[in-house]
Design brief:
The chain is α+β, with helices and mostly antiparallel strands. The protein has two domains: about 110 residues, Orthogonal Bundle (Arc Repressor Mutant, subunit A); about 150 residues, 3-Layer(aba) Sandwich (Aminopeptidase). About 45% of the residues lie in helices and about 20% in strands. The protein contains ten helices and ten strands. The strands form two sheets. Strands 4-5-6-7-8-10-9 form a seven-stranded mixed beta sheet, with helices on both faces. Strands 1-3-2 form a three-stranded antiparallel beta sheet. Helix 2 crosses helix 4. The longest helix is centred in the middle third of the chain and has 22 residues.
Length: about 290
């Protein structure tokens, strides 16, 4: 643990020095890193202010100050969302588009300058290692948020899960049959969404069976996020939530096609038990004492 902490801190010091994070004028743009980063995010397409905050993990006051600076420079405009007047969206002005292209070019030039002295083999190694490091850091900083099962984010995550089941099961999957199960996650249950940069990348729910037992439902992690420990984090969080609600054991079922999930459950201490429901898609039933 200590070695990993020191390595990460050493990398942060080296990287921040070499990419201009410490400069008042980031990449010679005339702006520090904060407003430059915000300008880059807005330049990826018109974006809601709330989405900006979530994507960058910034508080509303700081985002407002950064936007005010970019507005004063004539680079962005903040307008009511035409689909919901309670929300605000940010768009680049024509001058903002020019500034964004300039920032993008400067960033490319810096990156190119850092790697031009490397051999082709070392460039490939750097790209592979940085790509894996970025995935691991993003996975470690995913937030696990308890949300209303009826919320848009919960419905989006559950919808992605159900679509994947339909693609994976040889007999397909009828999502309509799952609607009642999802409704059962309200009230005495829980629904957790794993969120990274404002995007749902996983989910899981709890349904109350009785005072002693809760059932884990809708366990899903996006394919691009697998192998990074996120599923294990989500499972442990659901177990903690069940324990906090006073349950002493959890149940779950799964399909034979989901072999990585089956292996994960058994490695996490789940034991095979007899069928406890009439789910036509289930082939295995598990229990874990909390």
């Amino acid at each position: 643990m200590n070695d990993a902490v020191e390595t990460l801190r050493r990398f942060n010091r080296s990287w921040s020095q070499r990419v201009g994070v410490l400069d008042d004028s980031f990449l010679g743009s005339g702006r520090p890193l904060g407003p430059s980063r915000l300008l880059f995010e807005v330049g990826r397409g018109g974006v809601g202010v709330r989405e900006l905050r979530e994507r960058l993990g910034l508080d509303s006051g700081y985002v407002s100050r950064l936007l005010r600076r970019l507005e004063d420079e004539g680079l962005v405009e903040v307008l009511p969302d035409p689909e919901d007047a309670r929300r605000r969206v940010v768009r680049l002005t024509p001058d903002g588009m020019i500034a964004h292209r300039d920032l993008d070019d400067r960033s490319d030039d810096l990156a190119r300058g850092l790697i031009e002295a490397m051999s082709s083999r070392h460039r490939q190694a750097l790209a592979a290692h940085l790509g894996e490091a970025e995935r691991l850091i993003r996975a470690a900083t995913v937030s696990l948020d308890v949300v209303d099962p009826a919320s848009q984010r919960a419905r989006e995550a559950a919808g992605a899960y159900l679509r994947e089941l339909d693609e994976t099961f040889s007999e397909g999957f009828d999502a309509g049959e799952a609607a009642n199960d999802h409704a059962d996650l309200s009230g005495d249950g829980r629904f957790i969404v794993a969120v990274s940069d404002g995007v749902a990348v996983g989910c899981g729910g709890l349904r109350r069976v009785d005072d002693e037992t809760a059932e884990i439902k809708r366990m899903w992690v996006d394919r691009d996020w697998r192998g990074l420990g996120l599923a294990g984090r989500l499972l442990r969080r659901l177990e903690d939530e069940a324990s906090a609600l006073g349950h002493r054991r959890v149940w779950l079922d799964t399909n034979r096609a989901l072999t990585p999930a089956i292996a994960m459950y058994r490695a996490a201490g789940y034991s095979d038990i007899d069928r406890y429901n009439d789910n036509p898609y289930a082939d295995f039933w598990f229990e874990k004492r909390l």
